Amino acid sequence: MKEPIRVIQYGVGPIGAAMVRLMLEKPGLEIVGAVDVDPAKAGKDLGEVARAGRKLGVAVSAAAAPVLKAGGDIVVHTTSSYLVDVQEQLLECLDAGINVVSTTEELSYPFRKHPELSRLLDSRARERKVALLGTGVNPGFAMDKLALTLATVCHKVEAVEVRRVVNASKRRLPLQKKVGAGLTVEEFRAQVAAGILKHHGLPESAAMIADGLGLAVDRIEETIDPMVAEEKVVTEFLEVAAGRVAGVHQIARAFAGPKQLIFLELKMYVGAKESIDAVTIHGLPELNLAVNGGIHGDLATVAVTVNCIPEVVQARPGLRTSRDIPMCFFPGTT
Amino acid sequence: MKEPIRVIQYGVGPIGAAMVRLMLEKPGLEIVGAVDVDPAKAGKDLGEVARAGRKLGVAVSAAAAPVLKAGGDIVVHTTSSYLVDVQEQLLECLDAGINVVSTTEELSYPFRKHPELSRLLDSRARERKVALLGTGVNPGFAMDKLALTLATVCHKVEAVEVRRVVNASKRRLPLQKKVGAGLTVEEFRAQVAAGILKHHGLPESAAMIADGLGLAVDRIEETIDPMVAEEKVVTEFLEVAAGRVAGVHQIARAFAGPKQLIFLELKMYVGAKESIDAVTIHGLPELNLAVNGGIHGDLATVAVTVNCIPEVVQARPGLRTSRDIPMCFFPGTT
Hints:
2 copies of one chain form a homodimer.
Chain A: E1 5-10, H1 14-23, E2 29-35, H2 46-49, E3 60-61, H3 65-70, E4 74-77, H4 83-95, E5 99-102, H5 115-127, E6 131-134, H6 145-150, E7 156-167, H7 173-178, H8 185-193, H9 202-213, E8 219-228, E9 233-234, E10 239-240, E11 245-256, E12 259-269, E13 276-284, E14 287-292, H10 297-313, E15 318-320
Parallel strand pairs in A: 1-2, 1-4, 2-3, 4-5, 5-6, 6-15, 7-12
Antiparallel strand pairs in A: 7-13, 8-11, 9-10, 11-12, 13-14
């Protein structure tokens, strides 16, 4: 029997809590610590905070230092979408000599937006001989890794299109609000302009595809528009009148000069008739892949992150991305 | 500019020749040697033998030893489907301290059928600090790696089905003959019984999926039946009368006790209306993936093998499989 992998959960919000519940089902993972800055959670048992149905004998700590000092093999980090917001948290984990897998979207492929910070994280991880990975379903899988994997069968790749449609109707209320469901178009535009309303990660996915497939991309553009309800949409949580916003319609385009090489389109809205993840590769041969029914966002982000734990623990030291590691289901080891 | 990866092509039949032609398009790969036992090829320029359209300044050698002694970073090995037939060839490459990527189907996941030989190859590769990988499109990608990759988004996996339909009508004559096109059903059955007629790799794919997803498989069964032409089929190369064999219909099933956990179905025949690669994962969530139009076999085997070269060169020493390495298109490095 192998030694279990000792995990520290950093951030026990809804996604972090779901990570904990999934990890409890995996033999071979042992949760040895938990961190959350929320004073309402500090000192409480992680099982209670994560609604795991039982006590885990692990107290949530408001401070990371003592938990990291006590040691572990990997930190599962779920605190923010923005890399600059979490850089100190990540560096502290690396300095403690602990591997990190994080859902920070901007960490999934940070080299274009944050080149200096990428170099710093990479060199720090190498110094400490640990690996750092940002992943999740999107970015991290559905709009990047899946296309890269499919391209393994290609002789040539000229251009890539990825389309993801997510029906937000059956998702939790925060997700429905996050995509702007129920807003007027003007409110939506104002929230986009204020940087409040946005799904993060499309430019990161485009950059990962460009570098992975050797596409000479010189710029990546992103647009965020509303999906407007054509008829009234009623979900468990809210109602969207016709003409109001049902969700987001985001597109990232990557170009080499005037030529578009990558097109990534995400529609995430309530009332979507059909969820789908589709990849088209133009090249030799032409390829069309579809996941009909789509890949569920919240479930999948939690799964991807937990399933990557064993690979991150044994990865080459440094800043890794979904592109670098073999991704697979982790059944747990005993 | 990085040092190029120095490649030795071992086996210059139709597939090996296609490997050479594709490698010539990849900056960062340099073909430094070639081996083929065929006396008709020995001494000739590899470019001529591989119909590359130009001389390459590399003579095909009937003996491996001098080529391996001259050195290289990786051998691209394309000589036989059977592991016992190629074990000496593989060991000789490993003993020379050279990494190997091979299309030998039985090498793709050899642990069940050849446990001792697997251990020998693994330990020899580790001793020499090189990696050895058996791969290709099937086994190696379409009926194993694709399913494993998709399962990354799962919380639980209970069972897996993979269906691959290949229209052999537009494939080369040897492939059409290999699947038995034109035979009577009796001839087909006799050739199956004699071990002549078979697509190799389904049990290997089933074993890779079982181990990768932690499915407690205790036995794998395989059946080979004819696809019988319902009406006359005419291809560029041959004609199949109604009632004659159009191709193979192979199924591998993996069980835990009485329960079927893995179902792999391959139909490769002339006159197939539609090629497709489809993966269904039963679990949480349920997933359905389809590559409509399918993944072209010959093209893809060559692509998968060449695209894996950089990963094999930097892989952990030992016997690796498609499961262990990140698979992606290799655009070439300059």
